[in-house]
Amino acid sequence: FIMIIFAVLAVLLLATGHSQEADETITYTQCTDGYEWDPIMQRCKDIDECEIVHEACKGGMKCVNHFGGYLCLPRTAQIIVNNGQEETVSDTGSRNGNPIIRRTPPDRVPSQIQCAAGYEANEHNVCQDIDECTTSAHTCRSDQVCVNLRGSFTCQCRTG
User: Fold this and answer.
1) What's the superkingdom here (predicted)?
2) What count of other Cβ atoms lies within 10 Å of the Cβ of residue 151?
3) Over the stretch 83-140, which tens digit does the pLDDT of each residue have?
4) Is residue 115 included in any domain, yes or no?
């Protein structure tokens, strides 16, 4: 009698286990922000916000599509692509405010970065702003005041 109960339980477990397997394909059509569902490729693909968002970048900045979003870079920014990975980050588009143009691949030692114009690598290999006003690297006249900006400087008239 006990053997019959075990046999019935085994058949029920096998039947239950089999019925829980999905015979139909489960499709996901919800994508995270910055992506849209491609029904042909059956996957989420990046949205090119630069193409569809009117004036995505203001103030003369250029729009650069990026995975899941976009960056607003100065028109003079260089974009260097290495091994299919975008490695340019600008002062305005950076998540951490670190304007890196190029980083040496990690398999090369030492890893050294190339900073955007107006920035230099510090002892921690992080790009930091060059204060052109204190280093006399500016072109302001003697009757003007140098004002340091992130990555640049401006000359303003003295008051009076």
Assistant:
1) Eukaryota
2) 19
3) 444 444 444 434 444 455 555 554 554 556 677 778 888 887 778 888 989 988 889 9
4) no
Distance CA 54, CA 67 (A): 19
Q: Containing domain of residue 67, as a range?
A: 30-82
127-133 long-range Cβ contacts below 8 angstroms, 24+ apart: 127/98, 127/99, 127/100
Cβ pair 68, 35 in contact under 8 A: yes
Find out whether the peptide bond into 106 is cis, omega within 30 degrees of 0. Answer: no
Structure tokens at 93: 């588009």
Number of domains in the chain: 2
- Please indicate, yes or no, whether the overall pTM of this predicted structure exceeds 0.90: no
Q: Could you tell me if residue 156 is left (phi over 0), alpha (psi between -120 and 50 degrees) or otherwise beta?
A: beta
Distance, in Å, from the CA atom of 133 to the CA atom of 153, rounded to the nearest integer, reads 7
Phi, psi dihedrals of residue 98, rounded to the nearest 5° = -105, 105
**111 belongs to a structural domain:** no
